[in-house]
Structures are given as structure tokens and as C-alpha cells.
Amino acid sequence: MYDTEECPYCEQQTEIDHDDGYGYEEGETYQQECSKCGKTFVYTTEISFTHSLEKADCLNEGGVHDYQETHTYPKVCARMQCTMCGDEQPLPKEKYDAYRKEYEERMEKIKEEKACF
After folding, report:
1. C-alpha angle 91/93/95, rounded to 5°?
2. Is 47 exposed, middle or buried (0-12, 13-18, 19+ CB in 10 A)?
């Protein structure tokens, strides 16, 4: 993977080579030769985090979770997940039982088809 930075000598864009994880350790000084001017420079790595904030009305007074079924295969493994906060709950019993029956029937049919070979 490569990051492009400006060479401190020629001010041209040069690629910082991170092959095999080289140059990712914070607090270390690394050396690299500029691919444009051929001079060697040093660099350090800084890691920063970015946070994305969203409203979660369900977590505030009077809020209600907006649970939606996850898109999971097989369906018997699905859960109910709140679209606002990510909280998860099991499927309602009726839905779980229906998915389980459907899954078991499908598995039985596959076994029968394989027995024909």
C-alpha cells in the first residue's frame, strides 16, 4: 500500500512505501529515498481517528428502538437490530420458529437429493 506525500527536498509527490507493514509504527523514524530527486528523507507516522456522530433518539427519554430484521443467511440466524443505535434482539419466537422449520425442511430436501446419487 502506498501513501503519497510531498518530498521535503524537491517538493514533488513521492509514494511512501508501506510494504510488509514498514513505516506504520508510531514514534519511530523511518528513512526513504525520494523516487523523483533521489535524496533520502525521514518520516514518522501519526495515526488519527475520526468519529461520525448520528442521532440515536431511541436512547433518549421517550425514544423507541426501530428494530429491523438483519439480512442474514440462513434466515434462522437473523436478529432484530435497531437502525439508530445498533442494539440487537433475538427474532420474535413466531418468526424464529417459522424460519427454523423452513431451514430444517430445506436441509432434509438436500439430504434426500444427495441420497439419490
Report:
1. 65
2. exposed
Q: What single-letter amino acid sits at 24?
A: Y
Cα–Cα dist 14/41, whole Å: 11
Specify whether the CB–CB gap between 14 and 7 falls below 8 A: yes
pLDDT (tens digit, 9 = 90+) per residue, 73-108?
999 999 999 999 999 999 999 999 999 999 999 999
Phi/psi at 29 (nearest 5 deg)?
-110, 130
Alpha-carbon gap, residue 115 to 117, rounded angstroms: 5
Q: Which residues face 3 on adjacent strands?
A: 16
Closest by CA position to 34, among listed 9, 56, 57, 59: 9
The amino acid sitting at 61 is E
The structure's pTM equals 0.58
- Cα 72–Cα 102–Cα 79 angle in degrees, nearest 5: 30
